[in-house]
């Protein structure tokens, strides 16, 4: 089974968070094989599964998103969100939400990560996405789902990568429960602008 404990690990470079090394992506996980059908089925039935049940590579990606959330600028909502994108080479690009007093100018973590990947020339190399939100109260909450604008950006990203079924991992603040989905499930009919 992909992602079981005891597999060889590879260091993964986290772009933008150079001090952190994720060491739980195995060679098999770099290919990001989908979790077992049973895990996906349970997730579809009750909405969430335990973090321990998912692929170790996707769990590591969720942990990278949690670290990114700590860098969020959220003085108004006090709700920090982090996003992480796994690239083909195993590196991870992260983003965090940035709030503005003019609320319409606020940027979501998912879009920050995608724009950052684009600037680094990695827009078409994304394999998977993870999102996590942390409230000021510190409660576990439910796994955070991308907003509509982020779903559109993720759909365009998935299309550019040729991966409409790109995995999306949405985790709770304590990294215990996750909701597994795909970009296509989040936004089955994205706006294409006639292209």
Describe it.
It is built from 6 helices and 8 strands, in the order ββααβαββαβαββα. The chain has 195 residues and is of the alpha+beta class. Residues 1-42 have low confidence and may be disordered.
CATH topology: Cytidine Deaminase, domain 2
Rg computed from alpha carbons, rounded to a whole number of angstroms: 16 Å
Indicate the CATH class: Alpha Beta
Structural class: alpha+beta
pLDDT < 50 runs, ≥5 residues: 1-42
Distance N to C terminus:
40 Å
How many structural domains? 1
Strand content: 15-25%
CATH architecture field: 3-Layer(aba) Sandwich
General form = globular
Task: Give the biggest sheet.
Answer: 8 strands, mixed
What letter string, H or E per element, gives the SSE order? EEHHEHEEHEHEEH
CATH superfamily: Cytidine Deaminase, domain 2
Helix coverage percent: 25-40%
Average of per-residue pLDDT values: 81
Tally of DSSP β-strands: 8
What is the helix tally?
Answer: 6
Give the neighbour order of strands across the main sheet: 2-1-5-4-6-7-8-3
Provide a quick synopsis of the model.
With 195 residues, the protein is an alpha+beta fold. The chain has helices spanning 27-30, 37-46, 56-69, 109-119, 148-161, 183-186, and strands at 10-15, 21-25, 49-50, 79-87, 92-96, 126-135, 167-171, 177-182.
Relevant terms:
195 residues; alpha+beta; Cytidine Deaminase, domain 2; 6 helices; 8 strands
Please describe the topology of this protein.
Elements (H helix, E strand, L loop, with lengths): L9 E6 L5 E5 L1 H4 L6 H10 L2 E2 L5 H14 L9 E9 L4 E5 L12 H11 L6 E10 L12 H14 L5 E5 L5 E6 H4 L9
